[in-house]
Design goal:
alpha+beta; Alpha-Beta Plaits; 6-stranded antiparallel β-sheet; 2 helices; 6 strands
């Protein structure tokens, strides 16, 4: 996985893969993040984006993955993101990994 460094922030990424069904994964993400679509945004209580969820096979062609990029402003909010990925894993299968 990839950590993106900018002049101010570092982005941390968690992934859930392999996902068997794109439509099932998109439906679950739509259910968790109503009114949103790619990317699905996890926001804190003030509306600031904590993490960006995406569904694609970019890193490994043919292996469908849900990725969650944690904003540098919320770099230590792993628990919230991992909790959502665990809920998705319960329905979709796969394994959770991070870029560390």
């Amino acid at each position: 996985m990839l950590s993106i460094k900018t002049s101010r922030y570092v982005v941390k990424t968690y992934c859930l893969s392999p996902i068997q069904s794109r439509s099932a994964a998109a439906s679950k993400l739509d259910e968790m993040f109503p009114g949103q679509s790619k990317p699905w945004l996890l926001k804190d209580s003030t509306g600031d984006v904590m993490a960006y969820f995406d569904l694609d096979d970019v890193d490994v062609p043919g292996v469908l993955t849900i990725s969650a990029d944690i904003s540098g402003r919320h770099y230590n909010c792993d628990a919230e993101v991992v909790s959502l990925l665990q809920r998705l894993r319960a329905d979709l299968g796969g394994e959770i990994a991070n870029d560390a």
